[in-house]
Design goal:
alpha/beta; five-stranded parallel β-sheet; 49% helix; globular
Length: 220
């Protein structure tokens, strides 16, 4: 049975956003939402990476257009430093290049700054429970992205039709629970197949599996 996430004291969130008003607004939203606690809010990735937090973070909201190190560079470094932390982009940028590079760097989700507060909190819940929250505009772009990419001729992963369908659900942002509902199977079955997918794709996380699926058009 898959262990359910446990967040003593609330879901632990951090924010990286260079605009002070936006940063403080996000902090107020998180601290005012039941079941959440804000452990830090920084204006740059350099500040975030230089900070220490105890206990570990559950989710980090990351802007992309930051001074100094970009959000995408920071996401890649955070993924190595704290692989258990869900990294959710929160930005005004919605171009294909940034979306693709953020996902490849290890972003768990991609939300636009016009996301309603309630939807943002819902997205954070989803991220820490295995989902990949995306604004509707971004989700459509992700689908278009993997339609356009062509797989290398030597990409032979031997995914079964069932595994391909499950991988598509991961790309669309489903959690274990919602994927199980869509496929009419148990969560344990989903976990078993996801581990098989990881092994075949030679990846270690959902974000890596999604990036490989998009980059090599494994769903086409």
């Amino acid at each position: 049975m898959i262990p359910q996430p446990s967040f003593p004291g609330g879901i632990r969130v951090a924010i990286v956003e260079d605009q002070r008003r936006t940063r403080e607004g996000l902090r107020a939203l998180i601290e005012g939402s039941e079941g959440f606690v804000c452990l830090g809010a920084w204006g740059s990735m350099e500040e975030a990476l230089a900070s220490k937090w105890t206990p570990p973070l559950d989710v980090m909201l990351v802007d992309l257009g930051l001074p100094g190190m970009s959000g995408i560079e920071g996401i890649a470094l955070m993924r190595k430093r704290s692989p258990e932390t869900a990294l959710v982009v929160l930005t005004v940028y919605e171009d294909n290049d940034r979306v693709f590079r953020a996902l490849c760097a290890g972003a768990t989700g991609y939300l636009l700054k016009n996301t309603a507060p309630a939807k943002l909190i819902e997205g954070l819940h989803s991220a820490v429970n295995g989902g990949s929250p995306m604004s509707p505009e971004i989700a459509r772009q992700v689908i278009e992205l993997f339609r356009k990419f062509h797989p290398p001729e030597k990409a032979q992963y031997n995914l079964t039709p069932h595994e391909v369908r499950l991988l598509k659900l991961l790309v669309e942002g489903h959690s274990y629970k919602t994927a199980a509902f869509e496929l009419s199977v148990s969560i344990n079955t989903i976990a078993f197949h996801i581990q098989n997918i990881y092994g075949k794709l030679q990846v270690h996380s959902k974000s890596e599996a999604v990036a490989r699926a998009l980059n090599e058009n494994l769903l086409g």
